[in-house]
């Protein structure tokens, strides 16, 4: 049996998109599947990328457009892999594609359907800092710029009551409640897994006060507050309505001890936040509370030195688990042990928790479906791990980006290039 010349890429973040474009340029048919209703991944939640502080959405938008307009790349959003059969060169993949209920062809993205919807929900994409309707796009600038309907929350689709408010508001007949989920089979010669990462759940560490005190934020929540396409359009407005915190504490390595590894990029993110705050609130006092500092790239050290000199006070503490955040009037106290083992206290209006990167929620399920192993930390296991392999434990299936382990954008793209090279070699 001849080998299929098509490739399945799982995950439409920066790694999956770059891999898809490279495969397309090499003459391969690509099926790019994404569980979310948009493509772009975690990078589009960021306002800027270190160390050069490029606009993230400006950098990624051309790639997204190239993907959506590329005839060799078939994008399937709201889709997950259900079953994989066969072997390298001849995989049969069953994909579960959920109904969007809004036509990707007929919708023009005008947004007239949002306001009439009576259902109000928390927006998970915006880290629950904003609300959405049952018909929604995750954030301004989502691509494709076509809403989806949450069938469990929609009054009509859930059977709770008859409601056609969004249908009546749409002048283009783009909304179709009769649309059904689909099971789609594709035949591919190789598979690239680029499912990205999640972040450590800070509620597991109550000493930091996350979920208890409104002034405590995760790093990604801060990213969305600062982002121009975020819930506050980039204006730093805290949960209690305070617009200009006078003192901010950024705590490094939250969850590192529990996970048992360094995520490598968290320190740079923390220093980027210090830079943001210095630019937006130059009179604010910013502390970076750390037990270790990791700036591994040749260009990162210069960024770190600039931030250290201009915009932050570094506070060493040897034991993150000894930090305790408590309420102090309208502010917060951060109690910690200094290098001599003595307790000290910093007062702040805002605390930002820099969280460990962890395997994506779908990793365990996918490892079973694909028949590939996980490593001891829960990421996908590669062969010859110590020499940077992208080959998994099953021939013809490759892994790239943060699905393999924590890494920055540059190294994620390097792995995308490596996985594409491996795919082309194994299909020739």
Strand-helix topology:
Blueprint: E1 6-10, H1 14-25, E2 29-33, E3 48-49, E4 54-55, H2 56-69, E5 73-76, E6 79-87, E7 90-97, E8 120-122, E9 131-133, E10 135-136, E11 148-149, H3 165-169, E12 182-188, E13 190-193, E14 197-199, E15 216-218, H4 219-226, E16 247-254, H5 256-259, H6 266-280, E17 285-290, H7 300-310, E18 313-316, E19 324-328, E20 331-337, E21 343-348, E22 350-355, E23 357-359, H8 363-370, E24 397-399, H9 409-427
Parallel strand pairs: 1-2, 1-13, 2-5, 13-24, 15-22, 16-17, 16-22, 17-18
Antiparallel strand pairs: 3-4, 6-7, 7-12, 8-9, 10-11, 14-23, 19-20, 20-21
CATH architecture tag of the largest domain = 3-Layer(bba) Sandwich
Number of domains: 3
Strand content bin? 25-35%
Radius of gyration: 23 Å
Helix content: 10-25%
Mean pLDDT: 94
The CATH H-level superfamily of the largest domain is FAD/NAD(P)-binding domain
DSSP strand count: 24
Biggest sheet details: 5 strands, parallel
Kindly identify the CATH topology of the largest domain: FAD/NAD(P)-binding domain
Can you count the helices?
Answer: 9
Q: Which descriptor suits the 3D outline?
A: globular
SS-based class: alpha/beta
Strand order within the widest beta sheet: 5-2-1-13-24
CATH class of the largest domain: Alpha Beta
Distance between the termini: 14 Å
Q: Which residues sit in consecutive blocks of at least 5 with pLDDT less than 50?
A: none
């Amino acid at each position: 049996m001849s080998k299929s010349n098509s490739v399945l890429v799982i995950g439409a973040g920066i790694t999956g998109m770059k891999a898809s474009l490279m495969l397309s340029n090499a003459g391969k048919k690509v099926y790019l599947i994404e569980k979310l209703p948009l493509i772009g991944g975690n990078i589009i939640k960021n306002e800027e990328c270190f160390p050069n502080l490029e606009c993230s959405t400006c950098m990624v938008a051309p790639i997204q457009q190239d993907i959506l307009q590329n005839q060799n790349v078939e994008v399937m959003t709201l889709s997950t892999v259900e079953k994989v059969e066969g072997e390298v060169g001849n995989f049969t993949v069953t994909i579960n594609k959920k109904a969007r209920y809004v036509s990707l062809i007929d919708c023009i993205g005008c947004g007239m359907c949002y306001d009439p919807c009576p259902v109000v929900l928390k927006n998970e994409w915006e880290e629950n800092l904003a609300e959405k309707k049952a018909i929604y796009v995750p954030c301004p600038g989502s691509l494709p710029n076509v809403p989806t309907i949450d069938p469990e929350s929609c009054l009509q689709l859930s059977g709770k009551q008859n409601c056609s408010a969004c249908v009546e508001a749409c002048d283009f007949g783009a909304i179709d409640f009769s649309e059904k989920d689909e099971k789609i089979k594709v035949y591919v010669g190789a598979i690239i897994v680029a499912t990205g990462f999640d972040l450590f759940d800070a509620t597991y560490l109550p000493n930091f006060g996350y979920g208890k005190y409104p002034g405590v934020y995760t790093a990604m929540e801060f990213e969305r507050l600062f982002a121009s396409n975020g819930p506050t359009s980039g204006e730093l407005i805290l949960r209690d309505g305070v617009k200009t915190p006078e003192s901010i504490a950024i705590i490094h390595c939250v969850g590192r001890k529990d996970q048992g590894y360094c995520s490598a990029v968290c320190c740079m993110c923390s220093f980027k936040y210090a830079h943001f705050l210095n630019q937006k609130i130059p009179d604010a006092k910013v502390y970076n509370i750390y037990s270790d500092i990791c700036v591994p790239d040749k260009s990162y050290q210069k960024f770190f030195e600039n931030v250290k000199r201009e915009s932050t006070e570094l506070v060493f503490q040897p034991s993150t688990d000894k930090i305790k955040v408590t309420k102090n009037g309208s502010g917060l106290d951060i109690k910690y042990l200094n290098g001599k083992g003595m307790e000290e206290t910093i007062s702040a209006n805002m605390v930002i928790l820099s969280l460990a990167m962890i395997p994506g929620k779908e990793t365990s399920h996918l490892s079973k479906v694909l028949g590939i192993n996980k490593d001891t930390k829960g990421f996908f296991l590669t062969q010859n791990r110590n020499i940077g392999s992208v080959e998994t434990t099953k021939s013809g299936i490759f892994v790239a980006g943060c699905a393999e382990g924590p890494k920055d954008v540059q190294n994620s793209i390097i792995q995308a290039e490596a996985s594409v090279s491996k795919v082309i070699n194994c299909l020739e």
